Amino acid sequence: MVASKLNLAVVVCSFALPLTAQQHIHDVKKIYVQNDTAQSPSDDLWRLIRGKVISHIVAGATEGSKSFGITVVEDPDEADAELRMVLNGQCDDGVCRISGTVHLVSQKDSAILWVDDVRVVKHRNASSAFAEKVAQDLFKALVRD
User: Fold this and answer.
1) Which end of the chain has fewer CB within 10 Å, C or N?
2) How far apart are CA 129 and CA 145, in angstroms?
3) What residue ranges do the domains of the chain occupy?
4) Are strands 30-33 and 81-92 parallel, antiparallel or unpaired?
């Protein structure tokens, strides 16, 4: 039997990313909720939902035993991230449908930190249900990551 030698070459590649390369959702402490009524089918509905999203985030950030340490700010320059929403809403025969895509964007490097697709169909308080769902899903993402 002929013995053969096997030569292995091991190539080690390494690289380092700068510590400041990308912000993580856990780094977010201050959120600015987008204030862009131009994209909304109804400016009043948009303002109402924005206000309720802010209220639910502020209330949820300090509710219960888990503190998320999130502050909502009115100046985008003070924020770590911006919560952006693209909404569609309509009411027919007393039933309101609100759907939207919500994403949290890092102010540091414009990375998308979190995305959610929210839909609500309600006879009453659809805007409140939508805002509450956005805040709840954001807090779930903070706990999960």
Assistant:
1) N
2) 24
3) 25-84+101-116+128-144
4) parallel
Residue pointed to by tokens 């839909």: 119
| Contact criterion met (CB below 8 Å) for 97 and 90 | yes
Is the domain spanning 25-84+101-116+128-144 CATH 1.10.1200? The answer is no
Q: How remote is the C-alpha of 121 from its chain's centroid?
A: 21
CA distances from 54 to 7, 11, 13, 51 (A): 63, 52, 46, 5
The structure's pTM equals: 0.76
CA gap 5, 39 in Å, rounded: 69
Q: Please write the tens of the pLDDT for every residue from 88-136.
A: 888 888 899 999 999 999 999 999 999 999 999 988 889 999 999 999 9
Residue 120, H or E segment = strand 112-122
HEC readout, 1-18: CCCCCCCCCCCCCCCCCC
As a whole number of angstroms, the distance between CA 46 and CA 89 comes to 9
Q: Are 67 and 48 in contact (CB under 8 A)?
A: no
Chain-centroid distance of CA 53 in Å reads 11
* 81 and 113 Cβ atoms separated by less than 8 Å: yes
